[in-house]
Amino acid sequence: MNKLITIIAALFVFASCGTQAPEYDATDMSNILSYSTMQVFMPSGGSGSAFVWDDTFIMTAGHCVEQETQSYVELLVAGKKYKAEIAAYTPAHTTDVALIYIPEELKDVLKPLVRSTREPTYLDNIILVGCPLGEPEGVTTGVVSHPVTGLEGIHGKLPIFFRTDTDAAPGNSGGAAVMNGKLVGMLTRGVPGYSGLAWCVRLDVLEIEAEKMVKAITKSKEKEESEYIHVK
């Protein structure tokens, strides 16, 4: 009997570790939705999600802008659209990341998301911020189902993602993945017709790719092209 009680107690502790309440409140999410994330519209049609990366750039998924012949997108911020120039991107079959210049009129309004110093692990609570199916911006919640994974065709299946059971739909691409109010990744992939399967590019990969793109932008001005990075 004592052994049974010990096993039950151990299972309770394990379960509670993965289902603890996220460390954020409605005010935190309201500020994130108001000043750090947004909907992005492509000139050719369609929409995606995006978030403020730093004082210069907004980040979204590369496949959101990859097919665009125009060098700009429109950002929906506080109910108003602003034209923004695409800076650079990596294609969908690579790391699928894009940088967009913050419009001058928004530089004193938008705030970069705070980046997490802790990598997500199994059963961590995750919030995806985005605009599914072109709907107004909102949040969906879930947990990390695998902290380090890859997909076929992505740099030979390098581990650049974490997987979550959070529901996602077209339009969520490029949205921020948030843990305890801090950025841990960016949603880029889901599986049509399946719920509870979404892949987010890990924060450490986003940081590496953003740094490469900034360097590529400088090189492009010097008429030098970079490997798989495309500069608009």
Labels describing this entry:
232 residues; alpha+beta; Thrombin, subunit H; 6-stranded antiparallel beta barrel; 6-stranded antiparallel β-barrel; 22% helix; 34% strand; disordered N terminus
Short overview:
The chain is α+β, with helices and mostly antiparallel strands and 232 residues long. The chain is built from 4 helices and 13 strands. It has 2 domains: 101 residues, Thrombin, subunit H (Beta Barrel); 81 residues, Beta Barrel (Thrombin, subunit H).
CATH class identity of the largest domain: Mainly Beta
User: What general outline do the C-alpha atoms trace?
Assistant: globular
Structural class category: alpha+beta
Identify the strand order in the major beta sheet. Answer: 1-2-3-6-5-4
Radius of gyration of CA atoms, rounded to a whole number: 19 Å
Give the low-confidence spans. 1-21
Query: CATH topology of the largest domain, what is it called?
Result: Thrombin, subunit H
Average pLDDT over all residues: 85
Distance between the termini: 69 Å
Q: With helices defined by DSSP (H or I, 4 residues minimum), what is the helix count? A: 4
Helix content: 10-25%
